[in-house]
């Protein structure tokens, strides 16, 4: 069956948000007199939600400050989440071309408040759902949140592709029986996505569009 629905990750898939996340992490660390992190270090820490990001960024002997650091991160990021972030090359045009052709949603481990501000700011009303991490709902790769989106659409999981740059996205797709598609331009190593079960690995928006069109 041809693909009917697309569920995208956000950070590292649709948008390059690394600069703003890096700035917010270092703001929190600096406020607590902790050593700042390089952009490469922060890149390697993204993917499992903001609480895990802050835990990884703090020195191991300073984890007692996690709550304070998390609040500092959220307060700063809430006012600076679109300073540097932008869609990857060709992504905005690709999403625009998909409107009306596929059901589309965004599912991210980023906090829900941020997802709900960022997605419409960059992509308007292209997505029926823009969902982030919420209290009481497990983050990806747990299938609960994605299963809710699929149920709302009324589309069989086998007719849906889950697209992302993280192992969490690939594992989520496999958990619900959707098509797992990895992208190489984000925050993870492409080979890692293949090793974890990605059916395809795409190197640009044009290739992703072509891959989706070719799935029968």
Care to describe what's here?
The termini are close together. The longest helix is centred in the middle third of the chain and has 15 residues, at 66-80. The mean pLDDT is 97. Helix content is 46%, strand content 16%. Helix 3 (50-57) packs across helix 4 (66-80). The protein has helices spanning 18-31, 39-45, 50-57, 66-80, 91-98, 112-123, 144-153, 167-176, 190-195, 205-214; strands spanning 5-8, 15-16, 86-87, 103-111, 129-133, 160-164, 179-183, 200-202. The strands form 2 sheets. The chain has a 6-stranded parallel sheet, with helices on both faces. The protein has a two-stranded antiparallel sheet with strand order 2-3. It is an alpha/beta fold and 216 residues long. The chain has 10 helices and 8 strands.
What are its keywords?
216 residues, alpha/beta, 6-stranded parallel sheet, two-stranded antiparallel ribbon, 10 helices
Structure in a nutshell:
This protein has helices at residues 18-31, 39-45, 50-57, 66-80, 91-98, 112-123, 144-153, 167-176, 190-195, 205-214, and strands at residues 5-8, 15-16, 86-87, 103-111, 129-133, 160-164, 179-183, 200-202. By secondary structure, it is an alpha/beta fold.
Question: What is the count of DSSP helices, taking H or I runs of 4+ residues?
Answer: 10
Taking all Cα atoms into account, the compactness measure Rg is 17 Å
SSE arrangement, N to C: EEHHHHEHEHEHEHEHEH
Overall geometry comes to globular
Order of strands across the main sheet: 5-4-1-6-7-8
The share of residues in helices is 40-55%
- Ends: how far apart? 5 Å
Strand content is 15-25%
In total, how many beta strands?
8
**Mean of residue pLDDT values:** 97
Major β-sheet annotation: 6 strands, parallel
Structural class: alpha/beta
């Amino acid at each position: 069956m041809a693909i009917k629905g697309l569920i995208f990750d956000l950070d590292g898939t649709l948008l390059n948000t690394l600069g703003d996340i890096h700035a917010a992490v270092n703001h929190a660390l600096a406020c607590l007199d902790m050593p700042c992190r390089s952009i490469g270090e922060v890149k390697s820490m993204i993917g499992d939600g903001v609480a895990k990001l802050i835990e990884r960024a703090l020195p191991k002997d300073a984890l007692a400050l996690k709550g304070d650091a998390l609040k500092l991160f959220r307060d700063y990021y809430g006012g600076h989440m679109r300073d540097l972030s932008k869609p990857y090359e060709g992504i905005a045009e690709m999403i625009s071309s998909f409107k009306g052709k596929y059901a589309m949603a965004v599912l991210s481990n980023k906090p829900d408040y941020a997802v709900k501000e960022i997605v419409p700011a960059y992509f308007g009303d292209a997505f029926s759902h823009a969902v982030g991490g919420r209290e009481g709902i497990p983050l990806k790769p747990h299938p609960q949140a994605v299963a809710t989106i699929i149920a709302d659409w009324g589309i069989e999981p086998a007719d849906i592709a889950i697209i992302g740059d993280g192992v969490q996205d690939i594992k989520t797709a496999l958990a619900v029986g959707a098509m797992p598609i990895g992208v190489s331009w984000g925050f993870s190593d492409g080979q890692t996505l293949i090793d974890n079960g990605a059916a395809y690995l795409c190197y640009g928006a044009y290739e992703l569009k072509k891959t989706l069109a070719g799935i029968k």
